[in-house]
Write a structure and sequence with these properties.
The chain is an all-beta fold. It is built from no helices and eight strands. The chain is globular.
C-alpha cells in the first residue's frame, strides 16, 4: 500500500547558455527546497522545447536529498511533460534503484500542483520495511 506525502516547495529555474543558438530549445538548472512530509533539497537539469501555439515538452532529472517521513537519504526523479495547446500532461517518477540511505528501494510518483503562484507536491511512494 503506497504512503502519501505532501507539502510545498520553492523552485529556482536558471536558463543555461545554448551554444547551438536554437531559440525553440532550452536548457535549465533546477534548485528546489521541499517542506512538509519531505524536508530537503534537489538539484537537477531540464531540457525543453516549445511552439508559438502553446505546445511543447520537457524532460528533467533531479536528485532529491532529504528526510521523508523520518527516513533520510536521496533518490532521483524523472520528469516527462507534454503541453498540447496549453493543456499539460506531466509524469514524475522515482528512477528505479536510485534510493540511498534509509530511502534505498523507494518507488513512487510525484504530482506537482501550481495554484496562485505557489508550488506544492503530492508524493505516493513505497519503501521496503525498515531493517
Amino acid at each position: 500500500m503506497p504512503t502519501r506525502a505532501s507539502g510545498t516547495f520553492e523552485v529556482k529555474l536558471t536558463p543555461q547558455k545554448d551554444e547551438g543558438g536554437e531559440p525553440s530549445l532550452g536548457r535549465m538548472t533546477i534548485d528546489k527546497q521541499f517542506h512538509g512530509d519531505l524536508e530537503g533539497t534537489s538539484k537537477g537539469q531540464m531540457l525543453s522545447a516549445g511552439s508559438a501555439e502553446g505546445s511543447g515538452g520537457y524532460v528533467a532529472m533531479e536528485k532529491v536529498s532529504g528526510t521523508l517521513h523520518g527516513r533520510t537519504g536521496t533518490f532521483i526523479l524523472h520528469h516527462t511533460g507534454i503541453m498540447t495547446r496549453k493543456v499539460p500532461q506531466l509524469s514524475i517518477n522515482v528512477v528505479p534503484d536510485s534510493g540511498t540511505g534509509q530511502l534505498a528501494g523507494i518507488t513512487g510518483k510525484m504530482n506537482i500542483i501550481i495554484a496562485n503562484g505557489k508550488h506544492s507536491y503530492e508524493f505516493e511512494y513505497m519503501l521496503p520495511e525498515a531493517q
